[in-house]
Design brief:
Layout (H helix, E strand, L loop, with lengths): L3 H20 L19 H14 L9 H21 L8 E5 L7 H8 L3 E6 L12 H9 L5 E5 L9 E7 L5 H6 L9 H11 E12 H14 L2 E8 L12 E8 L1
The structure holds S-adenosylmethionine.
Length: 258
């Protein structure tokens, strides 16, 4: 199935993934130096950011770097615009579980938009070591310390029993190229296990929200959702002022249990 080159890359990534899991290195919570204000923002995005600040009472740059703050405004913008197009109320309270959250740098956005009682971010490679000698859990601890209801869970979601009212998944891996580019082994590419697990963990009246890179990846993910017994409740994609740097438009979709 995989080429020799892909298998060699996977072996190398698997080795480092195994090392970081065994070492479980941590230097403690790491907080980014706050940017305090965002400079050099073009008029259109600046206007949009100002509107989001007002509507959700956030100012990410007071606690995060400029880059992380801009990324949070982008995710908040997608949520805000996508949800308005959907025409169903935004869930609030309950348990929100985000799958594959990386360092969970966008936890503050999920908190501001959904205001869950409990916010979980599940990441399989939580112990990844970075060049600065810090681990992903150190970054996650820095992003979460202001959110007492939030938790960073280092686990393979396909094996987790985590019932939730709202499950979110931003840019899941569906192809070998994507997972290898993220420096993970191919053994972690298991969409055929991921979507049935989401279906299993979704509470009866719960909602699954997914974001994919472009229409082709979205079509692939949507086929897997349907095969797992999820029913689509909505879909939205549109060029957004804060996402112009992306090569492909983000495709948002909403799913209910069958
Ligand atoms: C493309 S990244 C997206 C990260 C984040 N959602 C974002 O929007 O920036 C996908 C993430 O999913 C994680 N991941 C992959 N398979 C996973 C699994 N089975 N369980 C939990 N996390 C997983 C990867 O380690 C990676 O951090």
């Amino acid at each position: 199935m995989y080429s020799l080159l892909q298998r060699l890359r996977s072996l190398r990534h698997g080795f480092w993934y195994g090392v970081s899991r065994r070492i479980r290195w941590s230097r403690g919570a790491f907080e980014e130096a706050p940017a305090r204000e965002l400079c050099n923002v073009d008029p259109e995005p600046a206007e949009r950011i100002a509107a989001l600040r007002d509507r959700y009472q956030v100012q990410f740059e007071l606690g995060m770097s400029a880059a992380t703050s801009r990324n949070n405004y982008e995710y908040l913008d997608l949520l805000d615009r996508g949800w308005s197009s959907l025409g169903i109320g935004r869930p609030s309270g309950g348990v929100l579980c985000d799958i594959g959250c990386a360092s969970f740098w966008y936890a503050a956005t999920l908190q501001a938009f959904f205001q869950p009682d409990r916010l979980l971010g599940v990441e399989v490679e939580g112990h990844r070591l970075f060049r600065d000698g810090r681990a992903r859990i150190d970054y996650a601890a820095g992003y979460l310390w202001r959110l007492p209801n939030a938790e960073f869970v280092v686990a393979d979601y396909t094996r987790c029993l985590l019932p939730a009212d709202l499950i979110t998944c931003w840019f899941a891996f569906l192809t070998p190229a994507a997972i290898l580019a993220w420096r993970l082994p191919l053994s972690l590419l298991a969409p055929e296990r991921l979507f049935p697990r989401i279906r299993h963990n979704l509470r009866p009246v719960g909602l699954f929200f997914m974001v994919n890179h472009g229409p082709a990846e979205a079509a692939l993910a949507e086929g897997l959702c349907a095969a797992a017994g999820l029913r689509r409740a909505g879909r939205w994609s549109s060029p957004a002022a804060l996402s112009r740097y992306r090569m492909l438009p983000s495709v948002l979709s909403w799913w209910r249990a069958g």
